[in-house]
TrEMBL record:
The keyword Nucleotide-binding does not apply. It holds the Pfam family ADH_zinc_N. PROSITE patterns: QOR_ZETA_CRYSTAL. Coiled coil: none annotated. It comes from the Bacteria. Keywords: NADP, Oxidoreductase. The keyword Acetylation does not apply. Residues 11-324 form the Enoyl reductase (ER) domain. This is Quinone oxidoreductase. SMART domains: PKS_ER (SM00829). It comes from Paracoccus sediminis. Gene3D superfamilies: Medium-chain alcohol dehydrogenases, catalytic domain, NAD(P)-binding Rossmann-like Domain. The lineage of its organism: Bacteria, Pseudomonadati, Pseudomonadota, Alphaproteobacteria, Rhodobacterales.
């Protein structure tokens, strides 16, 4: 028997429950691991609310990121052995648990010298930052970039990486208290949403030219301003909607605003290929090892307090990364 956070319906934090459930032996191509640390991400909140309900069969577990010690391996698994410490992103939701079974193809060996809480804080968000700025839109030295939620989990990592590349980084934060954190993350300029007009501020900072790319995980509250911040032929990367879904867009408006590009990427598609997934992880580990990425600010909650942790994240009461400890 294991402890696991489960949902039997979609809704607010009250749908989460801590249950005792059976854990069968791993099947062919699977491993079983004992969790050491579990990453909490906004996609977990989307799953809880039913925003991305299609992959879930209720009742369901939650969570798509963790670090654990391998305890058992199923038939056909090679290259992984009991006792190995691995991290993962993706696979069926179920990370909010003391132990779980996982497709072995999702497991990445964790380098020595990175503690489990740091790895859990970094693997999903770090791989998100990796594909956003290296593969979705490959940022070049000298590019002007707008990154929303620059003091958040993904933003904290991405802005450091962007600065190391040589980009001019404009970050947004939800409050003045988070502005210093954004500057420490590498932002050259910080805009406080709610008290400043984002697009007008970007135009002022860039001398009216706009940015080559805007990364927006906030959604409804920022989408229009992100579009209006772009230079001609610029790209808006919309990769989340923490403030709510984006309203329907008239495609012709992209032409009217400067022949703009719009993409809605998913980490699932950027890590689906095992070789690409491993290469992205190695790029992340190398950036952590050489000091490009400083260890993140980590806030921990006991696994049993997952509902409170989600509520704090959803209401922007957290900075950096949030980790559940089993």
């Amino acid at each position: 028997m294991i402890d696991a956070i489960r949902i039997s319906g979609f809704g607010g934090r009250n749908v989460l429950s801590l249950d005792r459930i059976d854990l069968p032996a791993p099947g062919p191509g699977e491993i079983q691991l004992r969790h050491l640390a579990i990453g909490l991400n906004f996609i977990d909140i989307y799953h809880r609310k039913g925003v991305f309900a299609a992959p879930l069969s209720l009742p369901s577990g939650l969570g798509v990121e963790g670090v654990g010690e391998v305890t058992l391996i199923g038939d056909g698994v090679a290259g992984i052995a009991p006792g190995d410490r691995v991290a993962y992103v993706g696979g069926p939701p179920g990370a909010y648990a003391t132990a779980r079974n996982l497709p072995a193809a999702r497991a990445i060996t964790v380098p020595d010298g990175i503690d489990s809480a740091t790895m859990a804080a970094m693997i999903f968000k770090g791989l998100t930052a990796e594909y956003l700025i290296h593969r979705c839109v490959a940022v070049r030295p000298g590019d002007r970039v707008l990154f929303h939620a620059a003091a958040g989990g993904v933003g904290s990592i991405a802005c450091q990486w962007l600065k190391a590349i040589g980009a001019e980084v404009i970050g947004t934060v939800g409050s003045g208290a988070k502005a210093d954190a954004a500057r420490r993350n590498g932002c050259d300029h910080v805009i406080v949403t709610g008290s400043e007009d984002v697009a007008a501020s970007v135009r002022r900072i860039t001398g009216g030219k706009g940015v080559r790319v805007a990364y927006d995980s906030v959604g409804a509250d920022t989408f229009a301003g992100s579009l209006d911040s772009l230079a001609p032929r610029g790209t808006l990367v919309s990769f989340g909607e923490s403030s709510g879904p984006v309203a329907p867009l008239a495609v012709a408006s992209l032409g009217a605003k400067g022949s703009l590009f719009l993409t809605r990427p998913s980490i699932a598609h950027y890590t689906a290929d095992r070789a690409e997934y491993k290469a992205a992880a190695q790029r992340l580990f190398a950036a952590m090892a050489d000091g490009t990425l400083a260890p993140p600010q980590v806030t921990t909650y006991p696994l049993a307090d997952a509902a409170r942790a989600q509520d704090d994240m959803e209401n922007r009461r957290t900075q950096g990364s949030v980790v559940l400890l089993p």
